[in-house]
Structures are given as C-alpha cells and as structure tokens.
Specification:
Number of strands of chain A: 2
Shape of chain A: elongated
Shape of chain B: elongated
Distance between the termini of chain B: 38 Å
Helix content of chain B: 10-25%
Distance between the termini of chain A: 36 Å
Oligomer: heterodimer
Largest sheet of chain A: 2 strands, antiparallel
Strand content of chain B: 35-45%
Strand content of chain A: 5-15%
Radius of gyration of chain A: 16 Å
CATH topology of the largest domain in chain B: Immunoglobulin-like
Strand order of the largest sheet of chain B: 4-3-6-7
Structural class of chain A: mainly alpha
C-alpha cells in the first residue's frame, strides 16, 4: 500500500480544494438559474466547515434531518 | 465532528451517534440528559462555547416593480446568535466573539439559488451572550413560484455556520 503517495495526493487535493471551490462558487453565483446551484453553494459551506474543523467528510450529516416542532415553520437541523 | 472536542470520550460519542444527535442537540439538552451521556466537564464546556443560531420573525413580502414589471419577493428574518453561558463549573471562556454565517434561499424543486448573503455577527460586548441581526434576501418571485412545489409552494431558507458542523438550520418558508 503506497501510504506516502496517498498522503501526498491527499495533501495536494486539500491544498487545491479552496481554489476549485472558489471557481465553482463564482460559476454558481453567475448561473443562479442553473439547477442545483443552491445545493452546490450550501455544500461549499459544508466543505469549508470540514476543512476548518479538520474532520472527516464521512461525518457530514447533510442527509440526516432532525425534525424540530418548536419552530413556527417546519425546520430541520442539517 | 463530535470526537474533535477535547475531553470527549469514545463512549460519549457512541451514545450520541446512537441517538443520532448532533452538536445542536447537545446544546439543547438539559443538565440531566447531559449527565446521562457521561460527558466530561472539559468537553461540555467546549461544546457550550459554540454559539447556536436561529432565524426568528421570518416574513415573506411580495412587490411588483412598475418600471420593469418584474415580481420581486423578499424574505426577512432576524438571525439570533446566542451562546450558552452556563457550564458545570461556572467557568466558560469563549475563544472568539466574531462568527460568520451563510444564509441562502433556494427552491425545493430543481435547487435554484434565489438569493444568498454572508452575515457576520459579533458577540463582543453583548452582556446577554446573544446578538440579533436583521437579514433581508431579495429574490425573483416568478422563478421561486415555478419550482415551489405543491400546496401553494414554499422556498427553502438555509442558515449555515461558516465554521462549525452540526448546528446548521433549514426552514421551509411558505410563498404567500
């Protein structure tokens, strides 16, 4: 198992990720009428959270919605 | 994310995962519920230093621009950021006072981005440990209505923390 290659490649990806996200974000802003631009932008924020907290991507609970009836509207915690 | 907090034991993380609980759930727990998890004082203080945010007084308005004839909607809400000041030993020193949030408005169908805004809130000098910021998001009403879904339709308002996982909120705001 080429562990060192894996580590180096991961570092490269993580270094380039903010630039890639910024470029995609610009595209999403300019193309607001493109489908799923809303989800894409929210996903950027989640990725930034992951980078800031240095946690694993598998820990994102984006699909796990918890219902809260205390709000005047139907609200969910991501 | 939960295992990242200093002093958080594996057993506590397992219990929280079993309950499908995120950080917001822990922040909303009372003392008895927290005790049953067996969280250490250090871990609990770290979690309680995280501010929670909620959107209150959400209102939807609609107007037509007479010159262009475009229909514009506006979602206004108060973003309330509050920090728990209560801890087991009474000592809680937050690491920072400035927090940023990302508010986005979209359609439930097709996921069109209607509007977005970055909101920065400072808790510095707030004696109550909470701050309120009014946010207004303007959007294309026609586009929102076309993908709003059944029963009059609604738009999706998401308020995400820029730094912390597990405290993000999503509201379904009716179009009316």
């Amino acid at each position: 198992m080429p562990i060192s290659d894996y580590i180096n490649d991961t570092k490269s990806v993580m270094d380039q990720l903010p630039r890639l996200l910024a470029a995609m974000e610009t595209v999403a802003f300019n193309e607001c009428t493109a489908e799923y631009s809303f989800d894409l932008l929210c996903m950027f924020t989640v990725v930034r959270q992951v980078i800031n907290t240095r946690s694993m991507v598998s820990n994102i609970r984006y699909e796990a919605f918890v219902y809260s009836a205390s709000s005047p509207f139907s609200s969910f915690v991501i | 994310m939960l295992y990242k907090f200093p002093g958080m034991s594996k057993d506590a993380v397992k219990k929280l995962k079993k309950q499908n609980a995120c950080i917001r759930d822990v922040l909303e727990m009372n003392d008895d519920e927290v005790k049953s998890l067996g969280l250490s004082v250090r871990a609990l203080n770290e979690i309680r230093a995280i501010p929670t945010h909620t959107a209150a007084n959400i209102s939807m308005t609609f107007e037509t621009d007479k010159t262009s004839g475009k229909n514009q909607g506006t979602v206004e809400f108060d973003l309330i950021v509050s920090r728990t000041t209560k801890s087991r030993n009474g000592n809680l020193k937050p690491r920072r006072d400035d927090y940023s949030f990302f508010a986005a408005l979209g359609t439930p169908k097709s996921g069109f981005l209607l509007s977005q805004d970055n909101v920065k809130v400072s808790l510095n000098g707030q004696k109550k440990g909470s701050a309120t910021r009014s946010v207004a998001l303007h959007f294309d009403w026609t586009l929102a209505n076309s993908c709003a879904g059944a029963n009059g339709g609604h738009v999706v308002l998401r308020v995400l923390s820029a730094d912390v996982q597990g405290i993000d909120i999503e509201y379904f705001v009716p179009l009316k």
